[in-house]
Design brief:
mainly alpha, 4 helices
């Protein structure tokens, strides 16, 4: 789903990554998060250019951390990581 914004569109690609992170953990989660962002930005025409590689890496790291902390049962820290990743 794409939402119009100043730089083109905002892709809501983090939800599938968060879902995978809550079901699995490890490298699969980082791959889904980073790869999902790159695919959705490619679909949108790469409005930020090579900056998307940095964004995909950051998204992969935060979603991996989310999955790891979620699997350890630390719900408050998981919520904090989610909010940091969103903002």
């Amino acid at each position: 789903m794409k939402i119009p914004a100043v730089i083109g569109t905002i892709a809501l690609d983090s939800m599938p990554a968060i879902l995978v992170a809550s079901l699995f953990n490890g490298r699969k989660v980082a791959f889904v998060a980073g790869g999902g962002h790159l695919l959705s930005s490619l679909y949108a025409g790469l409005p930020l250019g090579p900056f998307h590689i940095l964004v995909a890496s950051e998204m992969a790291l935060f979603v991996w951390m989310f999955g790891y902390v979620f699997s350890k049962g630390k719900r408050k820290l998981t919520a904090a990581l989610f909010l940091i990743g969103v903002y």
